[in-house]
Each structure stands twice: as C-alpha cells, then as structure tokens.
Amino acid sequence: MPREDGYKNLVPNEERTPDELRSITQKGGIASGVARRRKRSMREAADYYLALPETDRRRVNALLRDEVEPEDVDNQMSVVMGMAEAAKRGDARAAGVLLKMLGEEAPQEDPGADALENARKLLGGVESAID
C-alpha cells in the first residue's frame, strides 16, 4: 500500500533551478553510460564463451553424428542443438526461441478464421452470404 506522504518530498522540474536540472541529467547520463558498458561487457563475455570449443565429449559426438562440421563444434552449436532437441520434445518456448533466432515469427492462428466464425454466428445460419 503506498504511503500517503510519499509525494511530499518530490519537487517538480519546473521548480528546480537550471543548475539542479543540469546536475540531475548529468548523473542520469553517467549512470546510463555505466549500464551500457556493463551490458556490452556481458554481451562480449557471452560471445567469447559461446565461441569456445565444446569440451563434453558426449555432446561433441552427438553433434558430429548430426553431421556438424568439426570446426563448427563449439558451445554455441551445443546450445542450438539443446534448444532444437527441446523443441522436438514439444517445448514451445524453445521452438519460439529457435524461430526468433532464424528471424521468423511464431506461426499465428489465422485471424480471418475467427472473424469468419463470428460472422457466421451473427448471421445465424445464412451460409451462402459468407461462402
């Protein structure tokens, strides 16, 4: 439950001096830069790790059985293989991630079919008008 006096200490920007506004925006810009650098660092670390060769011999053998080129056997390929296996077992989220990686959207239901069914209900059995 929000505190009733929670807004008493807030000062609108219109009531702040230009120096205060400049100081606040400067602090926000600095924090934004820190967050961007941290995010970039995490992305680079993930990219580095995924480019390392796969060390689990069972996974390597499974990838080679699936006719993956030996130079392509790395952690990234192992992750993709794991998602593909999960999608084959019926994991809808894994299938969605794979489709998103391929640049495709998840197949949607035909929106026209719903509209057609609603029209049939509204017309109350007048089939020839719809077909």
Protein described:
It is a single chain. With 131 residues, the protein is mainly α. 64% of the residues lie in helices and 0% in strands. It has helices spanning 18-51, 57-65, 75-88, 92-101, 111-123, 127-130. Helix 3 packs across helix 4 (92-101).
Secondary structure class reads: mainly alpha
User: Mean pLDDT, rounded to whole units?
Assistant: 85
Uncertain segments: none
Strand content: under 5%
The topology string of helices and strands comes to HHHHHH
| Gyration radius, in Å | 28 Å
Total of helices:
6
| Major beta sheet summary | none
Based on Cα principal axes, name the global outline.
flat
The helix fraction, in percent, is 55-70%
Ends apart, CA distance between termini: 55 Å
Q: Please give the number of β-strands.
A: 0
Keywords:
131 residues; 6 helices
Q: What's a quick, concise take on this entry?
A:
The chain is an all-alpha fold.
Secondary structure layout:
Layout: H1 18-51, H2 57-65, H3 75-88, H4 92-101, H5 111-123, H6 127-130
Helix pairs in contact: 3-4
